């Protein structure tokens, strides 16, 4: 286990490991512009996207039609909303693959060309991002597994009890009558199973990509902080700097300023792909948690596990964005702290001016901004509190 998720796992092994695995299966991992997608990859993506779209439409339509039965409507809306958002994530990854690939290439270049000492700074963060991405994939997979197994268990129980056999589907959907009966019933069941699996892979790919990108960006800021300390290390045992030392420090600072700008610009580039995705997750997370918890409270036997895993996956999805946003914000502010702590007062006026310019920029945290809010741990607490309020209200109607 330590070799797979350990803090010293080489970045070559952990670089976007989980989102890359999930997106490759779904057919939406960003490809290099010089290596166009094969027709097989495009076909696989189209089939997967159709399955997710079918599930999203039929489940949400079922919920709308059965609003008079609030619990049945919630059972349909619970996975249906997730599938709709996952479809948006799939399409974003597939359509804007050139910009995503550019971000991946820039991160790879900045992360792999580093010393062994800096790897000890970066690799624990990279492994942490991979571990959380794996937990999201695992919880989503277990949720989908229970959704698909539960109808089979119920039908087996009906047959064992010699009761009338009812044809059940993994999700509550509204489809043409012929598709939910033989001979098309097995194909419909398999298509809905595929819909659930691709939903899990899609949000694991997009959300895992965001978290890993944030962890890598945080590592880049921390390595920059390490280099700033090294640039002024020669002044620790001196009362003031010489002219030659000031020239040498200014040259180092010029390179560090360029790298700082590059990290900030790269962060802005990948964040620009996520506003719609994060906003959708933010708008529906409290509702999804509410639906999942209400479902768990209203279910019996094995059905409870389905909603428990669903709640874990829903909460973890939003948690990844909040953890990633907080990591980037805090690590970017640490640049200002280290600039203030170095022996800047031993330098000449020109060097101090360069330090002041860099300090001024670093004092403004790099935040992950989307319309109406910033993903952060306080936002996570507010979302959980809102979900609790929704649960208290909805219990009065069910």
From TrEMBL:
GO terms for biological process: signal transduction. It is a multi-pass membrane protein. Its main location: membrane. The chain crosses the membrane at residues 39-57, 77-95, 125-150, 189-216, 276-298, 304-323. GO terms for molecular function: odorant binding; olfactory receptor activity. It comes from the Eukaryota. PANTHER family: ODORANT RECEPTOR, ODORANT RECEPTOR 10A-RELATED. This is Odorant receptor. It comes from Anastrepha ludens (Mexican fruit fly). The gene is OR22c.
């Amino acid at each position: 286990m330590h070799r797979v998720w350990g803090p010293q796992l080489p970045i070559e092994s952990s670089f976007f490991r989980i989102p890359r695995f999930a997106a490759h299966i779904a057919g939406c991992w960003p490809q290099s512009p010089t290596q166009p997608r094969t027709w097989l990859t495009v076909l696989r993506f189209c089939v997967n996207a159709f399955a997710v779209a079918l599930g999203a439409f039929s489940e949400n339509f079922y919920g709308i039609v059965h609003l008079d039965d609030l619990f049945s409507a919630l059972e349909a809306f619970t996975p249906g909303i997730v599938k709709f958002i996952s479809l948006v994530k799939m399409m974003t990854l597939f359509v804007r693959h050139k910009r995503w690939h550019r971000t991946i290439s820039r991160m790879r270049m900045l992360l792999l060309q580093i010393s062994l000492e800096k790897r000890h700074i970066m690799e624990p963060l990279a492994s942490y991002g991979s571990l959380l991405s794996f937990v999201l994939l695992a919880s989503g997979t277990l949720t989908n597994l229970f959704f698909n197994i539960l109808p089979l268990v119920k039908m087996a129980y009906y047959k064992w009890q010699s009761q009338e056999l009812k044809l059940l589907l993994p999700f509550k959907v509204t489809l043409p009558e012929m598709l939910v009966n033989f001979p098309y019933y097995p194909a419909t069941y398999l298509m809905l199973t595929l819909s659930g699996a691709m939903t899990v892979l899609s949000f694991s790919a997009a959300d895992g990509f965001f978290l890993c990108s944030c962890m890598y960006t945080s590592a880049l800021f921390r390595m920059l902080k390490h280099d700033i300390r090294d640039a002024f290390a020669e002044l620790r045992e001196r009362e003031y700097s010489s002219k030659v030392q000031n020239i040498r420090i200014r040259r180092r600072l010029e390179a560090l300023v360029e790298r700082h700008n590059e990290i900030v610009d790269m962060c802005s580039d990948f964040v620009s792909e996520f506003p719609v995705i994060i906003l959708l997750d933010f708008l529906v997370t409290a509702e999804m948690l509410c639906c999942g918890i209400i479902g768990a409270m209203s279910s019996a036997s094995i059905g409870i596990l389905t909603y428990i895993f669903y709640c874990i996956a829903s909460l973890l999805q939003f948690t990844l964005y909040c953890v990633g946003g907080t990591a980037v914000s805090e690590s970017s502010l640490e640049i200002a702290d280290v600039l203030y702590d170095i022996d800047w007062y031993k330098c000449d006026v020109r060097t101090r001016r360069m330090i002041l310019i860099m300090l001024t920029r670093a004092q403004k945290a790099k935040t992950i901004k989307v319309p109406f809010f910033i993903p952060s741990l306080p936002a996570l607490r507010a979302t959980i509190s809102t979900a609790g309020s929704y649960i208290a209200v909805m219990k009065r109607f069910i």
